[in-house]
Design a protein that fits this description.
Elements lengths: L1 E4 L22 E3 L5 E5 L9 E2 L6 E2 L4 E4 L8 E2 L4 E10 L5 E8 L35 H10 L12 H4 L10 E5 L9 H8 L1 H15 L3 E7 L3 H11 L6 E6 L8 H9 L15 E5 H13 L5 E7 L7 E6 L4 H7 L9 E4 L6 E3 L12 E5 L17 H5 L6 H9 L3 H6 L10 H4 L7 H29 L1
Parallel strand pairs: 1-12, 2-15, 10-11, 10-13, 11-12, 14-18
Antiparallel strand pairs: 3-9, 4-6, 5-8, 6-7, 8-9, 14-15, 16-17, 16-18
Helix pairs in contact: 1-4, 3-5, 4-5, 4-7, 10-13
This protein binds iron/sulfur cluster (2 copies).
Length: 471
């Protein structure tokens, strides 16, 4: 194992204020289970899970309450014991609505009558949810199955089903496993704390993933502004065998983007969508996800909780909190001592790629890396103006796009022009909007165009399928 400096700098990128000092030295604190959880069936990329419970049911921690609903989907387990109060549509961290199980965690099942279903069908409390596996003697298939049944998806934000990612299609081979420890989003320190406090779990997760993937080389990518995390990884991986490198990346947003990590570590370029990292022989996984794989295999512990950074100048005590999935934002804030002042803006995620939310009654998911409460001093009020053709967004775009052209096309309702300008290649990093002197909401325009293009493609596919059925 050796530590090297990245030799490959991508073009574009920006330097926002990182503001990580608010939470970076706060050890991970495990939060007690709150009285109510809002557990979404859509915590991952792909089809939402199909809900298996109904109001009145009692569930045990770890019980499957939502089954996988397609190839790109992930099952959902209850993150605590409790009684289902309701199953209803709720707003998620990104603003969209999805089915959610509202769980009263204070309720306990009454002794069921002979032959009754419900509580009698529940697994006994305590002990591991799944039988622990010896990863050295387990087969690749057993390990893959464990990742799937543990309900693991990418915890860095995208939520791609991990079992799918670790099982490349025929003809594709993983040559490099890239661990994403960049955490380049301002304010967020959850991954940083996981690297400091759970380094041996990350090491074990890497060994398991290498076995599943057939022994690829490993690159652990960390930005240079996290020397303590680099040292923790160096200590944990010191005696690992094989081709393993810690790659120290320049501090530049969006260094944590999958495509830019691949370029910075192994100088390979992922082509335009629908191409994936595996098309250039790479699998990228967030450090928290890797630790979750170790827990699922060695401890039999599915992905039921995660570390979330709660930060910003309007929260009393910023923290890195280990909380069960479905913990409401209001409970996270209460665990931080409440609000220091009324927040002018609440952001689910980081300031660059996160989503402003208007309520704290949203439950966390497997991908909730941060919750920010910002005062009016930290929130810039603006109105957008016409583009002045300064070119700043072109220089900032790490994908080499022309964001000004795309945003003008969207303003003119010309989605075709946005598509011709390769908007589908946009990674929604926000670097273009960040420096725009006309305060244009360019990233939102890109999102809008991408959504319309996806909707059009889905409609075309449905039409083609219906026509094929008629024949
Ligand atoms: S156009 Fe997309 S990829 Fe380029 S800077 Fe803007 S948000 Fe990022
Ligand atoms: S940064 Fe803003 S004003 Fe400058 S070219 Fe881009 S969209 Fe236009």
């Amino acid at each position: 194992m050796k530590t090297v400096k990245s030799q490959f700098k991508f073009s574009g990128g920006v330097h926002p204020d990182y503001n990580k000092e608010l939470a970076r030295d706060r050890q991970i604190e495990k939060m007690p289970v709150p009285p109510e959880l809002v557990i979404s069936m859509s915590q991952h990329l792909g089809a939402p899970a199909k809900c298996l419970v109904k109001p009145g049911d009692f569930v045990r921690r770890g019980q499957v309450i939502g089954e996988k609903n397609g190839f790109i989907s992930v099952l959902v387990r209850a993150s605590a014991d409790g009684k289902v109060k309701a199953v209803e549509k709720r707003i998620g961290p990104a603003g969209g609505k999805a089915d959610a199980v509202i769980l009263d965690t204070t309720a306990r099942p009454e002794a069921p009558a002979e032959g009754e279903s419900g509580a009698s069908a529940l697994a006994p409390a305590g002990g591991p949810v799944l039988p622990p596996l010896d990863w050295k003697s387990a087969t690749r298939e057993e390990l893959l199955k464990r990742v799937e049944e543990a309900g693991i998806c990418g915890m860095g934000g995208a939520g791609f089903p991990t079992a799918v990612k670790l099982n490349p299609p025929p003809g594709k081979r993983c040559e490099y496993l890239v661990l994403n420890g960049a955490e380049c989003e301002p304010y967020l320190t959850a991954d940083y704390r996981v690297m400091l406090e759970r380094a041996p779990r990350i090491r074990l997760g890497v060994e398991i993933m290498r076995k599943i993937l057939g022994g690829p080389a490993v690159r652990i990518a960390i930005e240079a502004n996290k020397p303590e995390a680099i040292a923790a990884m160096e200590a944990a991986f010191a005696d690992i065998e094989g081709n393993v490198e810690i790659v120290v990346l320049p501090v530049l947003y969006p260094q944590g983007s999958e495509k830019h990590q691949i370029y910075a570590t192994v100088k390979r370029i992922v082509p335009e969508p629908p191409a994936l990292p595996i098309d250039v022989g790479c699998v990228v996984e967030n450090v928290g996800t890797v630790a979750a794989i170790a827990d699922a295999v060695e401890l039999g512990e599915p992905l039921l909780e995660r570390v979330t950074t709660v930060s910003g100048d309007a929260v009393a005590e910023p923290k890195n909190i280990l909380a069960p999935s479905g913990t409401k934002y209001s409970d996270l804030v209460a665990f931080c001592g409440g609000e220091k002042m009324p927040p002018a803006k609440v952001i689910s995620g980081g300031t660059m790629m996160g989503f402003a939310v208007s309520t704290l009654e949203i439950g966390t998911t497997k991908t909730t890396s941060g919750l920010l409460l910002l005062s009016k001093d930290r929130v810039f009020q603006y109105s957008s103006h016409a583009c002045i053709n300064c070119g700043r967004c072109l220089r900032a775009c790490p994908m080499g796009l022309n964001p000004a052209l795309i945003s003008k096309a969207v303003d003119a309702n010309d989605v075709k022009a946005a598509e011709d300008a390769h908007v589908m290649d946009c990674i929604e990093c926000g670097a273009c909007s960040f420096g725009c002197p006309a305060y244009r909401t360019i990233t939102q325009s890109c999102r809008r165009a991408k959504n319309s293009i996806r909707a059009r493609i889905a409609a075309e596919k449905a039409k083609a399928a219906a026509a094929a059925q008629k024949k």
